[in-house]
Amino acid sequence: MQKFLFTILLVFLMVYPVFSDELKWEPDRFGVATSEKDSQATIFDIKTNSAVKSVKTGKVPHPLAFTPDGKKLYIANRGECTLTVVDMMRFEAVKTIKLNWKPSCVAVSHNGKLLAVTAKEESEVAIIDTATDEIVKSIPILRTDNEENESRQKPLHGMTMTHPIWTDDDMFLYVNIVPKSMIIKLDGRNFDLVSTIQTPSPIHMMYEHDNRLYALAQGKRMMNRPPGVVIYDIKTDKKVAYTTIPLQEGEPPLGHHACFAGDIMYYANMGNDSAPWGSTVALLDIKLMKVIKTLEGPTGAGHPLLSPDGKYVFVSGHGDNRIFVIDTKTQEITKKIRLGEKKGVGHGCFFSPDGKRYYIVSNADNAVYVIDAEKLETIAKIPTGEFPNDMSLNFMDSYK
Predict the structure, then answer these.
(1) Strands 165-166 and 172-177
(2) How far apart are CA 163 and CA 179, in angstroms?
């Protein structure tokens, strides 16, 4: 009898591990890291810095996007034509959305009603109703029969399209086509084509800032084009300014992500998807549209992130095992924080809401590292699945 009761209790704990009072869902408490090599996502608690549960996904899960209320999560499975939908209230995968192509990146609209999904190897966007998790529209982007073969060629950075972004008012949706070095502006209500914008080189990431679109041009090594930043007026699509990013001699161009600290944009040049990497972090004055300084950042500099108090910019490097911390007042590197022994950092990072801790995903160590943002030292290591390459805490992480 005791053995029977023990078995029942064990089964109960396995099936209902997250329904205790301590692990009750609340906004901005549970991060999620996607592991590409074992098709799972690890949910972890930033209050205790511990893993809570693993959720099965499709093949090669990578980008992820929360709804604004944090109750639902979408994971793009780049190794197959699906998205995984996670109910964060229950910490369970509740649906698989089938697509006609492998997804690249995802972003939820600011009103939380729609999800935009870009294609990895095609030039197409899917729009999903977040209330029903059904596809409401598929939008081929400037693709004709004659261009079908071109759209299937492997582009720079291995993607045909990368990050979609909605404007703050959801009036417009911007996507890009990497092989064509082009930005596509869609009406956020009916998804009609509004305009096409030719760029100096392929765009990886875009940001809305002060009613302007900041597009990060990757650069093209074979054409001797440096990375840069192009600014467009969102209302008129007029190019406001274009500034190139100076690199070290012999450094390959591949601009990746950026962040804003007042009037200064911190721009990271990753260089490649693997060695030889880039390492330049450029400080661009967006009022003067002039690079005022360059710093040698981590190997494979990828994701700068401003601390909530505005004191520091933390920069991760995809070919490194250190986080470089830049003091925004002196604009100098003030600390290099060591993670594990192995070099390799993924694409996900965030600060805790109170700004006291910084989280970074390490694909080399199969872990999320936690850094004390005041003492500037590593304080915890949270285990994940194999090769975690992206991570998110809330809705805005898709726009960083």
Answers:
(1) antiparallel
(2) 14
Instruction: Confirm if 280 and 258 have CB atoms less than 8 A apart.
Output: no
CA distance 5 to 19: 20
d(CA 78, CA 325): 31
pTM here is 0.91
Phi, psi of 97 (to 5 degrees): -95, 125
* Residues whose CB is less than 8 angstroms from the CB of residue 229 and which lie 6 or more positions away in sequence, other chains included: 214, 215, 216, 217, 242, 243, 245, 258, 265, 267, 284
pLDDT by residue for the chain (400 residues), tens only, comes to 555 444 444 334 443 444 444 678 999 999 999 999 999 999 999 999 999 999 999 999 999 999 999 999 999 999 999 999 999 999 999 999 999 999 999 999 999 999 999 999 999 999 999 999 999 999 999 765 444 444 444 443 458 999 999 999 999 999 999 999 999 999 999 999 999 999 999 999 999 999 999 999 999 887 788 999 999 999 999 999 999 999 999 999 999 999 999 999 999 999 987 788 999 999 999 999 999 999 999 999 999 999 999 999 999 999 999 999 999 999 999 999 999 999 999 999 999 999 999 999 999 999 999 999 999 999 999 999 999 999 999 999 999 9
∠ CA 182-124-116, nearest 5°, is 95
Cα angle 166, 123, 278 (rounded to 5 degrees) comes to 75
What residue type is 140 in one-letter code? P
Contacts of 325 (CB under 8 A, 6+ apart): 312, 313, 314, 315, 333, 334, 335, 336, 337, 376
> The tokens of 352 are what?
């805790």
**What does R_g of the chain's alpha carbons equal in angstroms?**
21
Cis amide bond preceding 276, omega within 30: yes
